[in-house]
Structure formats: C-alpha cells, structure tokens
Amino acid sequence: MKKALFIFSFVLATTFSINAQSSLMANYPLTENGVDISGQNDSLYLNNVTFQNGGAYSNGIYAGNDTTGSEIITPPFTTFDYDNFTVYLDFKIETYPENREPIIIGGYLWRWIGAYVDGDKLAFMANDFSLYEITDKSIPLNQWNKLRISFKKEDDKCSLFLNDSLVSDYTILEFSSGDDSRFVNNHGGSGNTFKGYWKNLVFYNSSNPEGIDEISPFDNISVSHSDEYLIVNVPDKSGNIVMDVFDVQGIMLKTAWLSKGVNHCTINLREGVYMLRFKNSKGAVSVKKIMITN
After folding, report:
1. Separation CA 66–CA 96 (nearest Å)
2. Can you tell me the distance from the alpha carbon of 14 to that of 35, in angstroms, rounded to the nearest whole number?
3. Is there a contact between 132 and 175 (Cβ–Cβ < 8 Å)?
4. Are the beta carbons of 86 and 203 closer than 8 angstroms?
5. Are residues 246 and 265 in the same domain?
6. At which of 211, 229, 252 does a domain end?
7. Are 124 and 105 in contact (CB under 8 A)?
C-alpha cells in the first residue's frame, strides 16, 4: 500500500472555519503555478516568474520599462470586502534594496494599500503614499517571512503583522481603492518591483481569521492510498465531509462524500503531489497538500 502524507497545510499552516460573516476568498500556494486552490477565482497572471526555492521568484525588474521584468497580478476579486479583509503573504528576500521596494501592493492602478522593504525595515503604505510609515521592524534575510495586513472599517483600523507579531496599527477612515481589487508585486506609478520570493498568498473577507473557531474536525483525518483507492479515515467528531481532489495544475480529479470512519474512494493516483479540499456541513474548509509515495 502506498502512503499519502500530509506535507503542507495551506492558510499559513493553520486552518480556520469559514462562515457567512468571514470567509476564505482566495488561496494561491505559488509553489508550482498560479492556481487558486480554493476554486473561487482565476489563476494569477504571471510574467517572467520562475518557481524556485519553494516559491515564485520576482526578479525586481519593472515590466513597464523592461520586457524581462516580473509581473504577478491577481484577477479582480468580485467578492472582495474593502471594509473587512485580511491578506496573508509569505515572502523572502536575499538582499536589502538600495531604494524602497514594494513587497505587495493592493490596486493595480489605484495602489491603495501595500507593504514595502525600506532599507532593512518593513514599511506600510496607504492611499498611494497619503500614508507611509517605516516601522522599526527589521526584515530577516534568507528566510520565509509571514506578512499579514488586516482592515476593519468598523474600527477604522488597519493592522500590520510580521512573522505573527503585531508591528503597528494604523487609523484608516477609508481606502481610495477605485474598486481595484487586484494585488500585484509592483508599484506602476514609481516603476519599482519586488525582488525576492512569494508563496502562500491568501485572502480572507475577515479582519480576524484567527478569531474564528479553529477546525479541529479536520486535524486527525488520515489518508492512505492503494492501487485503486484513496482511503480516508474520518474521526467521529468530523461529521459528513465533502472531499475534492486536485492535481498540482488545479484540475479537479475527484469529488467524494465522506462519512465518519473509513472511506474507500475509487481513484488511481500515481506518485506525486495532490491537493485535498475538505468541506463540512457547517461551511468549514480545509485545504491540505499530500504526497503519494511508495
């Protein structure tokens, strides 16, 4: 019997329940392609982007001036909630830029929010530099760093996090977004582009995903694989679950309805990497990456 090993849990290694007030909107692992594994959006537009060192490499060259420049652009998100959202991104840089350099910018044309590398520090930008602050938080080199930006209009507060620690809160009355929900790796107005690596670009329509009940029902699901079956053991507390199986290109291979106990799902998977998306009757979602090995 082949083994199926969980090798990565998306959404920053923690999985949270999704409800009507607060939901996962998009999830781009960016380890092999630009597919949204939540299945809700088109793939990223990628130009002169290579996949290496576990992520997508952006070469720091602005494509508006040089055709060899890297571009990473999300599709417009029709369900993006400008009043209540969180953006997650894992990024890695190998050197500090001579001039400030965007890590990620919200708004392809309007540039209404963003994070920067400024010297060795993390900086925050809002409304195309109406607000710009260099924080006292240094960005470590040559490691994956976890960026989070959250906004809640009800509190007029935007929060910036680095590596799971709060860096600063900012009072934002309103974003001048122009309804431009695309997120990019460059600032077209100043003509500069991020140089480094991206992965795990995730969007929530919630300012506080951690405040949602964590999904324990999915934690103890075990998976193995025979020549004809994907064998999924669902703990009693999980209830009924729908499982979707995707290949690394984001193509759905199988949908199965799971009940508690051992489930034998007819599917013949070769050795390789696959994504499993679990959904339960309460609307909770978990996406995990597995590797089929001998």
Report:
1. 22
2. 20
3. no
4. yes
5. yes
6. 211
7. no
